[in-house]
Structure formats: C-alpha cells, structure tokens
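ok so for the tutorial part 2 we go from a plain amino acid sequence to predicted structure tokens. step 1 is just haveing the sequence, like this:
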Amino acid sequence: MTDIRKVRKLFREAGLTFPKVPVDLAPELEERDQWVFSTRLIRRSPYDLDYYVHEVQRKQVPDYALLSHSGHGINSYAIQYYLVHGSLRMFLHLAWGGVYEDNQEAAVTIRACFLKADKIVQAMVKASAGFKIGEHLTVVGSDFYGSYWFQAGAGRRKRVVDRRNSLNVRPLEILTEVLDWLAKRSAELRSSQKSRSNEQ
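step 2 — the prediction. this is what the tokens look like for a chain of 200 residues:
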C-alpha cells in the first residue's frame, strides 16, 4: 500500500476526511513517523505550530504538505494540516484525540475545515494570477493558539496580527473569511481584466 493510500485509510478509519493535497505534492507524501505524513523531512514536531508559521516568514521554504496527529499531556492533541503551495501558506492545527475531547464532534468540525481548506486551495489556483512574485497569503487556524490570516509580500507591509484577539476566533471562521476574500479578489481581477480588454 502506498503512503498516500495509507494516510487516507488512517484518516477514514478515524472518522476524519482527508484534505485534497495538491496533485503535484500528493505522490511525494511519505510516512515519517506514526501518524506523521509529509513531503518534507520533519525535524520539529508538527505540534509546534509557531515554528512552521515563522519558518515561512523567515526564509524561502520549498512547497510541502504535512498531515499528522500529535500532542502532549492528556488533552492537548490535534490534527495538523500544513500546506505551503505557490502563494499559499496554510497551517491548520485542529483539536482532536484528547481524553476529554468529544472526538465525534471534533471530527465534524475538522471535516468542515478541510472542506473549506480544499476550496481555498482551488480558489488560490484561480487567484494566483493576481499575486505578484513574492506575495503570499498566510492562513493560520488553531483551536489552541488562535486563528488569523494576512496577505504579505514584495513591497507590501505585513499586517500586524493581534494574537490576543485571535484566540477568540475559531479556525472555521477564519477559513470562511479567507474564502470570501479570495472570491472577492477573483471577481475584482476578472473585472479589471475585462476592463483592460475593452479598452484595447
């Protein structure tokens, strides 16, 4: 059984859906440890969300996909889905697997988040023409560490994120907000292209 089939089966048997990993990354997904599948080498626990978020802000990181279940203690466990692909940097860190967690309810939320994440990946393909070289969209959705998003890049100041307020925002809310923003941006891009073609 290939590693991609193995991780899909693992997620399915756990009552979780499997996100649509971009086709150029899916064949590279390898089992790195128990419940850790990634297209890159793992030198830091996927539970360390801030490390992965700050990594892409500090340096150029090749595209990758990472899916895992990790945690510590008796209730601090989460499903991680980190995706760096083109102009998108998406980091989902969703509560699941803790002793006091309602895992069936958490699975429903994770399925909803993955559905939105799939739509964001698709929308980014359509919106990619509107992103200049060096620009990117960062999306962070965590049940433990807060949820926020921002667009940054060449010649653009990074939006300052108030992490205190982000703790009150659920990952699904952020994913919905990002999807709405991408739809609006895509519509504006189409309108702008139409206006330019009419002027010619």
